[in-house]
Amino acid sequence: MAEVTVKEVGELRKRTGAGILDCRTALEETGGDLAEAEKWLREQGKVSAGKRSGRERAEGAVAVVVDSAEAGESHGAIVALECETDFVAKSAEYVQLVDELAAELAMGGEAALEAQKERIDQLAVTSKENIALGRHVRFTAGPGSVIGSYLHIQNSRGVNAVLVELEGGDHDLAHDIAVHVAFARPEHLSRGEVPAEQVQAERETVEAIARNENKPEAAIGKIVDGRMNGWFKERVLLEQAYVRDEKRTIADVLGTAKLTRFAQVVIGS
Fold this sequence. Notes:
CATH architecture of the largest domain: 2-Layer Sandwich
Number of strands: 8
Number of domains: 3
CATH superfamily of the largest domain: Elongation factor Ts, dimerisation domain
Number of helices: 11
Helix content: 40-55%
Strand order of the largest sheet: 1-2-3
Distance between the termini: 48 Å
CATH topology of the largest domain: Tetrahydropterin Synthase, Chain A
CATH class of the largest domain: Alpha Beta
Strand content: 15-25%
Largest sheet: 3 strands, antiparallel
Structural class: alpha+beta
């Protein structure tokens, strides 16, 4: 039996999209001949996932997991698994896999998630769809910080997942902020995180609009500042009106707690 190298297995996977074990078997069966191994995989029906790799993955499911440690570090993770149809995305096998992928990432990091790719490949073969790992995020919080989460479920699968990290707050507050993020969909945590070029472009646009409205020259500065404040409030989490009480901003809701970061993954966006 021919000795098969990791490089050869990787090249065959690249050509066919077949799983690692299938590629290794094909190379062993064909004496290490890549062309013959590819033919063997086709004959065995193992390259169907590869053939679908160009199809659009507009559907899928997302999962979120938080390991709420009482002391020491805690971990949170979001994983999205993309596919072609909601029929596959809401299947029990698919939802279970994405849940387990999120748990692997939370507890073991990127290496643990990478080790699960064979399972993704196998599901692509059995479901006859283009399935691939989508966006994924991992938070690690030390003592004094808490990680909160929220998952919006639609048609039996998660479609909108959020993680937030607080310093000086509790899990209830972290969860409430995560719920807000899910529905308000902020783009940035604070004004300082908004790219300067975006701010400048919007300011120039707002000023042009004010001039086209024939506003008094002396008032244009204040008008632009006011409209820019409104623009920031739509995009910046700390300045958004809280979804459960629009008279308060997220900064008001936080009080003395500090929101250090957040992440949101939405299927289809």
